[in-house]
């Protein structure tokens, strides 16, 4: 019997992220929302220039799991799961499961335009 074990470092996973280093913009009720994906599977969510939430994320196939470290979706509502698609500079997000009403309002069934300031 042969046992094969693969160890993947978080740095390798972070480097594979299709989102790393990208910002996406969407206007919701006249407010300017930005998803800013950074290093180490981190994301900042901005509303009209102020930080709304600090988030970590894990990407697997066509799903992204978001866990808020700060903002209105921490605690029992910390994790939300969305299906994603990135095509022609547009990030589409579709709700899979999310108990946080605020995050659903911002992300569920939406399209975000990639941009650079």
Reconstruct the topology from this structure.
Elements: H1 10-16, E1 23-28, E2 31-37, E3 42-47, E4 50-60, E5 63-70, E6 79-87, E7 90-98, H2 101-107, E8 110-115
Antiparallel strand pairs: 1-2, 1-8, 2-3, 3-4, 4-5, 5-6, 6-7, 7-8
What is the string of SSEs from the N terminus onward?
Answer: HEEEEEEEHE
- Overall pLDDT: 81
- Flag low-confidence runs: 1-16
Structural class: mainly beta
Q: What global shape is seen?
A: globular
CATH class: Mainly Beta
Q: How do the strands of the widest beta sheet line up side by side? A: 1-2-3-4-5-6-7-8
In DSSP terms (H or I, runs of 4 or more residues), the helix count works out at: 2
Cα distance spanning the termini: 55 Å
Helix content: 10-25%
Strand residue percentage: over 45%
Largest sheet: 8 strands, antiparallel, barrel
What does this structure look like?
With 117 residues, this protein is mainly β. The chain has a single domain, classed as Lipocalin (Beta Barrel), CATH 2.40.128. It has two helices and eight strands, in the order αβββββββαβ. The chain has an eight-stranded antiparallel barrel. β4 and β5 form a beta hairpin. The longest helix has 7 residues. It is globular, with a radius of gyration of 15 Å. It starts with 9 loop residues before the first helix and ends with a strand.
């Amino acid at each position: 019997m042969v046992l094969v074990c693969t160890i993947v470092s978080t740095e390798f996973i972070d480097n594979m992220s299709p989102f790393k280093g990208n910002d996406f913009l969407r206007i919701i009720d006249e407010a300017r929302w930005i998803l800013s994906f950074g290093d180490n599977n981190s994301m900042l969510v901005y509303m009209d220039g102020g930080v709304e939430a600090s988030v970590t994320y894990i990407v697997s196939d066509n799903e992204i799991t978001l866990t808020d470290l700060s903002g209105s979706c921490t605690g029992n509502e910390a994790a939300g799961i969305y299906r994603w698609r990135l095509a022609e500079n547009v990030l589409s997000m579709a709700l899979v499961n999310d108990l946080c009403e605020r995050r659903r309002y911002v992300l569920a069934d939406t399209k975000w335009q990639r941009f650079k300031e």
